[in-house]
C-alpha cells in the first residue's frame, strides 16, 4: 500500500480547541505572566497558535529534544539537541508539547526542568495517546485531544521529517 495521510482531526476543530485552551490558560494565570517552553520541533505550530490565544503576558523559550529519529517507534533515548536560552528560576513555566506517546520525552523534560527551580511547572499538550504510555505518572494540566493508538502527523508532527506542515491532524497509512 502506498504511503498516504487520512484526516483525523480537521483544521477547524484544532483551531477551536486551541482557542479554548488559550482562554483557560489566560484565566488560570490571571495577574501573572507565563513562560512558555516550546518542545521543538513538533511543538512549534501548536505553540505559535496557542500563544496568540493567551491574554496574560507571555515570554517564550525553546528546547529541542529528539527520540524518534526517522522511525515510528521511539529509540527510548531522549537526546538534547538544543537547550533553553534562559534560566527557569522563579518563573511560572508552561511546557508546550505536540504529543505524549510513551511519555519518555516529557518525563525527561519535567525532571530536568524541576532542577532549574521554576516557581511553578505545568504541562500543555495538543495530543495524548494514553494507551501507549510507558512512563505512567505524568500529569497533563491542559490537553487538546486524547487520541487512539495511531501514528499521527501534521500540525508539527512528522513521519521521517515529512508532513509537519499539514494544517490538520492526520494518520499515516501504508508504513510499518
Ligand atoms: O512520549 P514520547 O514517546 O517520548 O513521544 C513524544 C515525543 O516524540 C516526538 O518528538 P521527536 O522525538 O520525534 O522529535 P521532533 O519533535 O523533533 O519530531 C513528539 O514531538 C514528542 O516530543
Ligand atoms: O504519533 C506520532 N506521530 C509523530 N511523532 C510522534 N512521536 C511520538 N508519537 C508520534
Ligand atoms: Mg517532539
UniProtKB/TrEMBL annotation:
Domain of life: Bacteria
SUPFAM superfamilies referenced in this protein's UniProt entry, alphabetically: PRTase-like
A GO molecular-function descriptor: glycosyltransferase activity
UniProt keyword Glycosyltransferase present: yes
Organism: Ohessyouella blattaphilus
Family that this chain belongs to: Belongs to the purine/pyrimidine phosphoribosyltransferase family.
Residue ranges of every copy of the Phosphoribosyltransferase domain listed in the record: 12-159
Locations listed in the record: Cytoplasm
Chain's role: Purine salvage pathway enzyme that catalyzes the transfer of the ribosyl-5-phosphate group from 5-phospho-alpha-D-ribose 1-diphosphate (PRPP) to the N9 position of the 6-oxopurines hypoxanthine and guanine to form the corresponding ribonucleotides IMP (inosine 5'-monophosphate) and GMP (guanosine 5'-monophosphate), with the release of PPi.
Catalytic activity: GMP + diphosphate = guanine + 5-phospho-alpha-D-ribose 1-diphosphate; IMP + diphosphate = hypoxanthine + 5-phospho-alpha-D-ribose 1-diphosphate
Entry-linked InterPro entries: HGPRT, Hxn_phspho_trans, PRTase-like, PRTase_dom
Primary localization: cytoplasm
The protein's required cofactors: Mg(2+)
EC number assigned by the record: 2.4.2.8
Protein name as catalogued: Hypoxanthine phosphoribosyltransferase
Recorded name of the encoding gene: hpt
Protein keywords: Cytoplasm, Glycosyltransferase, Magnesium, Metal-binding, Nucleotide-binding, Purine salvage, Transferase
Pathway in which the depicted protein is active: Purine metabolism; IMP biosynthesis via salvage pathway; IMP from hypoxanthine: step 1/1; Purine metabolism; GMP biosynthesis via salvage pathway; GMP from guanine: step 1/1
